[in-house]
Amino acid sequence: MAGLRSLYHESLYDTALVPSYWEESYGARQDHGTMLEGDAECDVAIIGGGYTGLSAALHLARDFGIDVAVLESGPMGWGASGRNGGFNCLPASKMTTNQMIRKYGLDDTKAFWRAQLDGVDLVEELAQSEGFEIDRQGDGNLEVAHRPGMMAELQEAADQMTRLFGIETRTFSAGAFAEIGYRSTEQFGALHMKAGYALNPLKLALGLAGAAERHGVRLHPHSTVTGWRKDGAWHLLETATGCLRAKRVLMATNGFTREGMHKSFDDRLLPVQSNIITTRALSPEELAAHNWQVEEPICNTRNMLFYFRMLKDRRLLFGARGDWTGRPEDGRKMKAWMIKRLGEVFPHWRDVEISHYWRGLVCMSQKLAPSLGRDEADPSLFYSYGYHANGVNTAPWSGRAMARLIAGQEGADAAIPAVMKGTASRFPFAGLRIWYLRAAASWYRWQDDRQLWPRN
Ligand SMILES: Cc1cc2nc3c(=O)[nH]c(=O)nc-3n(C[C@H](O)[C@H](O)[C@H](O)COP(=O)(O)OP(=O)(O)OC[C@H]3O[C@@H](n4cnc5c(N)ncnc54)[C@H](O)[C@@H]3O)c2cc1C
User: Where in the sequence is the signal peptide annotated (predicted)?
Assistant: First the structure.
């Protein structure tokens, strides 16, 4: 393999533990598995130990008795899965519902949303059946209008969700939401959808790792795949300390996929940074200053959205897009920008101390929806990626869908909605991906402040 390349600075791929609120509040982590050493063999090898890889591994071993090994660059759950916002929300697509219906038709759009709702439920089912905590918080998800004109869109979204997908919704005027939700300079009404909730993402990742291990999966942390060859029907996955032979491989590296890993994936993925800050715990007086009442996770209606939630210990978690380089100094500028924006959205919390800052990579693609399937050129290679920053429900669901497909379960292929099936197309002039992203971000920022026409 001619060396791994990436769109961002190397520091984003440094597998030291991330200084996130989740890591710090988790305490001492149990090390799941051991580094791959020497030669080993398995039926299915999974590259990537996040929700996708761990859920696929768990289901393959538990439901089909298949011999599985997982290779992960860092400790298990090191990627986006162990450090996200913990919004168990939907949908995993950057298409509006109308755009999706125009492209795929109503039935396939409904099938996609059904899968999304199944994903929301699957997370809790797994936590219960496998006996681990996820610290569920709130009931449903909130979307908040960041400008007065956005309520019409939210109302249409609410009507569609109820009419087409059977989701219970409620909308609130700015005044009504100020009474039962919160007050802010960017609160002009809200939509509540009774689907999803907030959770602790690291507990979910490590819960899945522990369950997979108990069902016989071999977990190999600190085992980056740096070489990938075929020897007849076998895949040979090389790490710095060993080589794993496998009959089938699932690529589950999502936003942390490096170019040069495998030619089937080069130029198709668009990793994008997402950043999070958390405040120190807010006092009852500080919470009252914005009349904060809600436990549900919240996204606002900006294209370049802010996402936030009040953590159980009353810290505000506040997330936003990242910078375009991944260089540590640009990350520091991003952190300063986020602190400033937090203060503008919640002026009473302007000077509150920030306890944590961290960042990570989500995965977008030209498809604007997830990509699940079997490689066309090599039927022993499977993939699942591109959850468009919405992987808490989608990645565990996709991992299970891939386990069923790999195991050859009847109906497994048909159970993957058309919207999610198949790989994304390659970007033209793929070396310019970050520039495409920058151009899109400028356009979205401009639109966020004006909203001259509706998004659908
Ligand atoms: C800051 C942030 C906030 C987010 N907030 C939310 C949210 O609130 N709600 C939501 O639904 N989604 C959120 N997301 C997205 C969500 O976390 C992801 O979609 C989801 O975790 C993807 O899971 P995954 O297992 O596919 O990928 P990941 O968890 O990223 O795992 C991929 C793994 O592959 C490993 N890897 C890569 N290359 C190699 C290699 N060569 N060899 C071995 N291992 C390799 C990486 O180390 C990594 O651990 C957020 C993401 C970020 C970064």
Answer: none
